[in-house]
Design brief:
alpha/beta; UDP-N-acetylmuramoyl-L-alanine:D-glutamate ligase; four-stranded mixed sheet; 24% strand; binds adenosine monophosphate
């Protein structure tokens, strides 16, 4: 079952306390595609400039990512540079050069329009809405976003959130969206828009899902983050998480509540591998066997016995 992703393909320059990369392969759709392609075929819609290195195109093709939807436009590829401090929490964006991304409009090839699984990576919500206008009856649509769109395009973002099945958002951004200190109030406000579930990303503290706006606790699920000894670069953790989550659901052809819980663990596992290397390095040779090994460890460290009667 194939997956459609629309987002950014970028050249990232990133510094963390443990090293730096310059103009490395990055972008939300890139991280997502590399992760999801471990599970199911991925169709990518994005734009790059004529300066985009051929080796990156070859790598994505080798991973089985279909690039018919990748527009190559005269000009420079989107560039992002950022820095993380020792906390490795939020990235401090140093520079964003939209370049060819500034005039990007997603044009879905006809064969992508019937996609069952759609991931609207973090891009302008107007573009996310343009994708929704082109797809026919998708089985599952997940939307990701960021603070920038909450600040500047809240109306369009609200319209897009209303039209998808799952909203995936960082904890701080959920609270910012709802203008509240309470995560639970923010979750309720987003669920009231119509999505079936909200997945809250909490970075190094893991992720959780809420699916019942009348009683968010009754329909919630919490996954911790994998306890890592080595973290190199948190860039792309959220998109890799989304790739593992949606990849698993597409492979299993199951979007029941229980499947989504297993998918959140898959996402957490893939995200944990992604941050071990710089850029997409650790994802390049990641195997399903390694993912399944860490999945079993998650089962072990989240299991506990009921209270004795
Ligand atoms: P994440 O660490 O999962 O939040 O995503 C990091 C990726 O987002 C990087 O690879 C960047 O190239 C990409 N990115 C950063 N800013 C933007 C933006 N404004 N629009 C689209 N992609 C972006």
């Amino acid at each position: 079952m194939s997956i459609l992703v629309v987002g950014s393909v970028a050249l990232d320059s990133v510094q963390t306390p443990f090293g730096r990369v310059k103009e490395a392969l990055g972008g939300t759709a890139t991280y997502f595609s590399i992760a999801a392609s471990l599970y199911a075929p991925v169709n990518l819609v994005a734009v790059v400039g004529t300066d985009f290195p051929q080796e990156h195109i070859d790598f994505l093709k080798e991973r089985g990512v279909d690039l018919k939807g990748l527009q190559i436009v005269r000009g420079k590829t989107f560039r992002w540079s950022a820095r993380y401090d020792y906390d490795l929490g939020a990235a401090e964006t140093l520079d964003t050069q939209l370049n060819v991304f500034a005039s990007f409009h997603p044009n879905l090839p006809d064969e992508y329009k019937g996609s069952d699984y759609v991931f609207l990576a973090n891009i302008d919500p107007h573009l996310q809405l343009e994708v929704l206008e082109q797809v026919r009856n998708p089985g599952l649509v997940i939307l990701d976003t960021m603070n920038y769109w909450i600040n500047y395009k809240k109306e369009a973002l609200t319209e897009a959130m209303t039209a998808v099945d799952i909203v995936m958002i960082n904890e701080d951004e959920a609270r910012q969206y709802a203008n509240t200190f309470s995560l639970m109030r923010a979750v309720r406000e987003i669920l009231d828009l119509g999505p079936q579930a909200v997945v809250i990303k909490k970075g190094k503290y893991g992720a959780c899902m809420f699916c019942d706006s009348a009683n968010p606790i009754s329909g919630c699920f919490f996954a911790p983050a994998y306890p890592l000894e080595k973290i190199s670069d948190p860039t792309g953790a959220g998109d890799s998480f989304a790739g593992g989550l949606m990849g698993y659901l597409a492979r299993e052809r199951d979007i029941s509540g229980e499947a989504i819980k297993r998918a959140i663990i898959h996402g957490s596992v893939v995200g944990s591998f992604a941050v071990e290397g710089f850029g997409v390095d650790r994802l390049r040779n990641l195997t399903l066997e390694e993912i399944e090994g860490r999945y079993q460890e998650f089962r072990h460290f989240t299991h506990f016995e009921p209270l004795e009667a």
